[in-house]
Amino acid sequence: MQAAIRPTVTVLLIILSVLGLINVYGDNTDVLAEAHALACPGCEATLRQVERTPISQTFHFMTDKSGMAIVKCSRSAIFLGAYSCEKR
After folding, report:
1. Cα 51 → chain centroid
2. CATH 2.20.20 given to domain 2-87
3. Distance, CA of 57 to CA of 72 (rounded, Å)
4. Domain definitions of the chain by residue range
5. 3-class secondary-structure state, position 21
6. Which runs of consecutive H residues, i.e. helices, occur in the chain?
């Protein structure tokens, strides 16, 4: 039993590392579009700053109407699932 624990933990950590790398360096075009639409619906918003971590993505937009808008998007599970965004 103990002989299986070390390889199992090793494989699990490798999988979590790969998922974290995908969350940070993967294509986020859809997430950015959702965040842009939430930051300023119907107006022009310019992306000023992006923070990408394995757990979430935070976008800072400069908008015509309200100035700075911050939108945080995170997955439904920590490393997996669809992104959902909320304006802060």
Report:
1. 8
2. no
3. 6
4. 2-87
5. helix
6. 2-25, 29-39
- Write out the two tokens for 28: 């986020």
Angle CA 36–39–43, to nearest 5: 80
Output phi, psi for 11, to 5 deg. -65, -40
Q: Which residues contact 28 (CB under 8 A, 6 or more apart)?
A: 52, 57
How far apart are alpha carbons 56 and 71 in whole angstroms?
11
Amino acid (1-letter code) at residue 63: T
Identity (one letter) of the amino acid at 48?
R
Answer whether residue 3 shows pLDDT above 90.
no
Instruction: Output the pTM of the full model.
Output: 0.85
Q: Using one digit for the tens of pLDDT, what is the confidence trace for 35-78?
A: 999 998 888 889 999 999 999 999 999 988 778 999 999 999 98
